[in-house]
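Tokens for chain A. Residues wanted.
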């Protein structure tokens, strides 16, 4: 279901999307502890510890094959029915709600002060357009660096809240050190509001394509029949490797070949045997729950290049 604490849907993709995507770490090693843990979760049609999934397949091209070994494509309606989801909208006002919860989330779970510090880089775009001297001032970066160390920050739920707090901090510093932030002395709360809104609008442009939906229960229930894609080395399709692998499983290798296989345990031939055992095991155990595809990385890279160069 779509969580009741966020009752409006994104202007970018209104309604329930046709598919959701999640990319995750799934080592191709039967003895790996991470593999065993994730495998057990997949058998139970779930992934633990997840805080979000995406309705934009672009995340596959960003993470799969680089830092992640697998991804799942899930039916949109079935995923909504099985989980408590909340859509992240990335709009400026929404990013500030609930003590800047969504802004802190897209800034990788940073603290309130850390989020304000990072937001300062985006706010700077406003001053570049309106006040070049302030844009180039060392005082600006100094201000937001000091904010990251500020204690006792009040709840920040709106753009106005942050503007008033920034104005208060600048006023406080000017009283204590009159020359330190003198360039900010005449900036009104309204100007701070305008600059914050401009900064948040730029954050929106940068992050909106992530298409994230929050999983409020911190785990994902995976619909039965979802598509599971696992990265697969391209060398597994080399004719010589295929021929050798078939001979191994048909018990046709000579004693010398078997000895060489044990000696060169990290070579292509040895790896092909391990990977085949891995594929057979995963297919046998998970094949009734998912449609499984072992995706050659070379083919994936071709598809990624076509996607990245496609006009939008």
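Reply:
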């Amino acid at each position: 279901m779509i969580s009741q604490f966020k009752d409006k849907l994104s202007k970018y993709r209104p309604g329930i999307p046709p598919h959701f995507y999640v990319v995750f770490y799934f080592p191709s090693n039967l003895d790996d502890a991470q593999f065993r843990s994730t495998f057990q979760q997949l058998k139970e049609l779930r992934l633990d510890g997840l805080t979000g999934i995406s309705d934009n397949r672009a995340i596959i091209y960003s993470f799969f094959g680089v830092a992640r070994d697998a991804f799942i494509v899930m039916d949109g309606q079935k995923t909504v029915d099985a989980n408590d989801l909340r859509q992240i909208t990335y709009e400026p006002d929404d990013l500030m709600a609930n003590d800047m919860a969504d802004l802190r989330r897209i800034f990788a779970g940073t603290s309130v002060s850390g989020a304000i510090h990072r937001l300062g880089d985006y706010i700077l775009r406003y001053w570049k357009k309106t006040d070049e001297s302030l844009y180039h001032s060392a005082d600006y970066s100094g201000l937001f660096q000091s904010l990251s160390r500020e204690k006792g920050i009040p709840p920040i739920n709106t753009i106005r809240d942050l503007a008033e707090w920034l104005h208060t901090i600048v006023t406080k510093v000017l009283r204590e050190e009159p020359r330190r932030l003198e360039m900010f002395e005449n900036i009104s709360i309204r100007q701070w509001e305008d600059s914050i809104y401009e900064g948040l609008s730029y954050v929106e442009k940068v992050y909106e394509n992530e298409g994230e939906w929050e999983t409020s229960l911190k785990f994902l229930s995976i619909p039965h029949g979802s598509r599971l894609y696992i990265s697969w080395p391209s060398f597994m399709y080399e004719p010589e490797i295929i021929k050798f692998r078939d001979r191994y499983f048909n018990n046709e290798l000579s004693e010398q070949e078997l000895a060489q296989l044990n000696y060169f345990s990290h070579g292509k031939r040895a790896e092909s045997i391990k990977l085949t055992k891995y594929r057979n095991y995963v297919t046998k155990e998970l094949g009734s729950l998912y449609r499984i595809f072992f995706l050659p990385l070379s083919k994936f890279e071709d598809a990624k290049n076509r996607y990245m160069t496609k006009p939008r």
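The radius of gyration is 26 Å. The chain has two domains: 19-88+217-309, 92-209.
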